[in-house]
């Protein structure tokens, strides 16, 4: 067998135990992973030459522990405790049984964002490489690296202990682990983006983690409930897609293609959950719903009344809009489509479902069963516009187009929006701003809505859902766009029911030294962003002023540049980066976009670089990139604005 393939297989099986054992001893999950990686590198170097050892897992464990001993002995800050740890490592004690469970609890600690928890868990417990995790979630390797590094940094700063909590705290931490495992499974089972409906690798990894957790926490009913739920859902994988990769709804699936082994494993896990006792939790209830589906030999034999009652119980424990939407499906199947539609219509104004494509998809199904085919067609087209998964989008469009089109003969909202944005008198920035508003209207109301039926009341409903909690400045910007569109389309004041909000700008809190150090030391940050961020931090100038800088107005020797009628100055950090960014250019904007503008978006001459043909970097794009890069640093995982790069004011000296 190929040595590298063997090493890869052994690593995926043993890495969690190795890292967990090392973390218990060195009390630093980041250091533990580095030591384990050192052992992996040693295996890659030695095994192809010396051959695969008889017990590869033990070889990796022993090598990693030796690396730990070497690290401790090299440390300049040896303490008596560290000496004791070194002796303990030399005795090569067997790892504690609970080490892997401890590592799970640390990797899924609630102090981390959901994305960071998922990435760190797959890295430490799944043994996946950064590239494998990035491919699974359709993001860049740099983004995953930032998430993992940010997670380790957050755990260290929060002082998260490598200990087993007790009582209510243990239950809360286990819930966090279950949430991450199910998130990974769902991303594999129903991919939120990309070309394929499923990513089987993620499903398998989540199942492996769930089964492992069930071994480590055998008395926890919710753990067995999650395993039962995933086993039964995974059993349908082969039947969920058609010959061309298109989705096949549950009631249309060939149940003969369901995997009987996984179904039996799901039933067994459900029995263990019941044996564990206690009041059924959210995963046990969802598993019970999955069992109802699996027990029915045909779709027609499904006990929908039982499923509806289970969703009723689930909604009391987990009163989320998504649970209510699933409950609506069950009610529609058990008691008729109108019963389901009543629940769905009550969810239309919920901001949490604003971009959730299954809301219009479910509503379209219920409307079709009521014979309201034109409305169903509109809803299914809305669902297709909202989903980011290509296979699902094509499926929804085919379903929508199966209904006869008795649409409007006059202008539609979507057509009018395109015409409005295509006017010659709008600059690029205005088109971008207005486009955000009109795209939201089209997504919420449907591109095919007759233009003459658009009302101020409908617009107010969209605003309440989309921007109800937005800052006053954002609300007013979208309000202004709607008024301009209404006046252009001769529809009157579409913002008549929208009051202008008073704007008060809160002062942005500058980033801390630790956060700035994390930015400056991130090797994945491109040169353009690194230079822009340094310049903003060192100059204290506004974002628009810095983005307006032109190469010909720079004085690199004096470390300053003219922006309009003022000078922007910088210090050594920016001075080191600017020459590389300019790359010999003598004219045009300092900060350029990634690509050349399309023929329909020709910028003003002053915003176009005559040497590269690329346009000036926009404020919106610069802000987006900074937010994306700083999400791992933000406890709320939203990311920061560029205004927070301004340096903290120096404290005044007494006297």
Compact summary:
The chain is mainly α and about 650 residues long. It is built from 28 helices and 5 strands. The strands form 2 sheets. A 3-stranded antiparallel β-sheet has the order 3-4-5, covered by helices on one side.
Q: Helix content range of the residues, please?
A: 55-70%
Mean pLDDT over the residues: 84
Major sheet: arrangement of strands: 3-4-5
SS-derived structural category: mainly alpha
**Radius of gyration using CA atoms only:** 29 Å
Gross morphology = flat
Which range does the strand content fall in? under 5%
Q: Number of DSSP strands?
A: 5
Give the end-to-end Cα distance, rounded to a whole number of Å: 76 Å
Instruction: Provide the low-confidence segments as ranges.
Output: 91-95, 649-655
| Main sheet makeup | 3 strands, antiparallel
Helix count, DSSP H or I runs of 4 or more residues? 28
Key structural traits:
single chain; 655 residues; mainly alpha; three-stranded antiparallel beta sheet; two-stranded parallel ribbon; 2% strand; flat
What does this structure look like?
The protein has 28 helices and five strands. It has helices spanning about 5-25, 30-50, 55-75, 80-90, 100-105, 115-125, 130-135, 140-160, 165-190, 200-215, 220-235, 260-275, 280-295, 305-315, 320-335, 335-345, 360-370, 375-385, 390-400, 415-420, 430-445, 455-465, 470-490, 515-520, 525-540, 545, 570-580, 620-630, and strands at about 195, 390, 555, 560-565, 565-570. Residues about 90-95 and about 650-655 have low confidence and may be disordered. It has a three-stranded antiparallel beta sheet, covered by helices on one side. It has a two-stranded parallel ribbon with strand order 1-2. The radius of gyration is 29 Å and the shape is flat. It has about 650 residues and is mostly helical. The N and C termini lie far apart (about 75 Å).
């Amino acid at each position: 067998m190929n040595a590298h393939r063997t090493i890869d297989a052994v690593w995926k099986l043993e890495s969690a135990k190795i890292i967990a054992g090392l973390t218990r001893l060195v009390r630093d999950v980041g250091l533990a992973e580095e030591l384990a990686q050192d052992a992996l590198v040693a295996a890659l170097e030695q095994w192809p030459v010396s051959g695969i050892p008889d017990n590869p897992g033990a070889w990796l464990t022993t090598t990693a522990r030796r690396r730990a001993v070497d690290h401790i002995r090299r440390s300049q800050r040896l303490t008596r405790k560290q000496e004791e740890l070194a002796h303990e490592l030399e005795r090569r004690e067997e790892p504690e049984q609970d080490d892997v469970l401890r590592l799970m609890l640390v990797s899924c600690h609630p102090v981390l964002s959901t994305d960071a928890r998922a990435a760190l868990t797959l890295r430490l417990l799944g043994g996946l490489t950064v590239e494998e995790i990035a491919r699974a979630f359709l993001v860049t390797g740099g983004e995953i690296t930032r998430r993992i590094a940010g997670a380790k940094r957050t755990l260290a700063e929060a002082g998260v202990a490598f200990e087993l909590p007790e009582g209510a705290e243990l239950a809360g931490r286990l819930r966090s682990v279950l949430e991450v495992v199910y998130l990974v499974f769902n991303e594999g089972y129903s991919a939120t983006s990309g070309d394929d409906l499923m990513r089987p690798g993620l499903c398998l990894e989540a199942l492996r983690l769930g089964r492992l957790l069930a071994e480590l926490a055998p008395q926890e009913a919710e753990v067995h409930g999650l395993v039962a739920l995933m086993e039964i859902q995974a059993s349908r994988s082969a039947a969920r897609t058609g010959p061309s990769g298109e989705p096949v709804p549950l009631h249309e699936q060939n149940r003969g293609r369901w995997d009987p082994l996984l179904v039996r494993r799901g039933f067994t896990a459900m029995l263990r959950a019941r044996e564990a006792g206690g009041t059924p939790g959210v995963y046990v209830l969802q598993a019970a719903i999955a069992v109802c589906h699996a027990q029915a030999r045909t779709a027609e034999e499904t006990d929908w009344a039982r499923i509806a009652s289970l969703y009723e119980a689930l909604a009391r424990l987990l009163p989320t809009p998504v649970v209510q939407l699933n409950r609506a499906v069950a009610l529609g199947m058990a008691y008729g489509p109108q019963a389901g539609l009543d629940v769905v219509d009550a969810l239309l104004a919920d901001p949490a479902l604003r971009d959730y494509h299954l809301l219009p998809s479910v509503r379209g199904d219920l409307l079709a069963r009521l014979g309201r085919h034109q409305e169903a067609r509109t809803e299914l087209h809305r669902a297709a516009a909202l989903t980011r998964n290509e296979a699902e989008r094509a499926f929804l469009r085919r379903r929508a187009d199966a209904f006869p089109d008795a649409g409007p003969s006059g202008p539609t909202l979507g057509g009018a929006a395109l015409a409005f944005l295509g006017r010659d008198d709008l600059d690029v920035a205005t088109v971008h701003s207005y486009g955000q508003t009109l795209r939201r209207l089209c997504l919420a109301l449907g591109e095919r809505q007759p233009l003459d039926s658009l009302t101020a009341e409908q617009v107010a409903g969209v605003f309440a859902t989309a921007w109800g909690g937005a800052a006053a400045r954002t609300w007013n910007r979208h309000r202004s766009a709607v008024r301009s569109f209404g006046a252009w389309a001769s529809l009157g004041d579409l913002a008549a029911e929208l009051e202008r909000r008073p704007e008060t700008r809160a002062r942005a809190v500058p980033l801390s030294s630790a956060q700035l150090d994390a930015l400056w030391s991130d090797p994945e940050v491109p040169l353009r962003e690194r230079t822009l961020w340094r310049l903003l931090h060192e100059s204290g100038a506004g974002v628009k002023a810095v983005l307006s800088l032109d190469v010909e107005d720079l004085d690199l020797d004096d470390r300053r540049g003219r922006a309009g009628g003022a000078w922007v100055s910088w210090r050594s950090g920016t001075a080191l980066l600017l020459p590389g960014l300019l790359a010999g250019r003598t004219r045009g904007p300092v900060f350029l976009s990634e690509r050349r503008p399309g023929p329909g978006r020709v910028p003003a001459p002053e915003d176009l670089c005559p040497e590269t043909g690329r346009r000036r970097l926009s404020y919106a794009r610069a802000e987006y990139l900074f937010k994306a890069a700083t999400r791992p640093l933000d406890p709320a995982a939203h990311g920061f604005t560029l205004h927070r790069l301004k340096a903290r004011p120096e404290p005044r000296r007494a006297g």
